[in-house]
Amino acid sequence: MPKEKEKLLITANNFVKRGKPSEALGYFRKALEIDQKDAKVWLRIGDLCKRINKINEAIEAYCKAAELYTRDGFYSKAIAVYKEMLLLEENMANIYLHTLALADLYSRLGMIGDAMSQYTKVEIGYEKDGRLNEALDIYKKMAELEPLNIELLIKLAKLAETTNALEAAKKAYLQLFNILVSDPVNAKQLDLPPLKTLLQEISSLSLEKVKSTYSFIKYLAEKKESFEDIIASFREGVAKIFTEKDASVHYDLSLAYKEMDLFNDAIHELHLALNAGYRPADCYTMMGLCYYDAKNYKEAIKSFNAGLKLPDLTNDQKGNLNYELGIVLKESGDYKKSLEAFQTCCIILPGHRDVYNKIIEVQSLLAQPPKPPVVEEIPEIPIELPPISEEEQEKKSQIERIKSLEEENKILRQKYEQMRKKLEKKKLKSSKSKK
Question: Is pLDDT above 60 for 213?
Answer without folding.
Answer: no
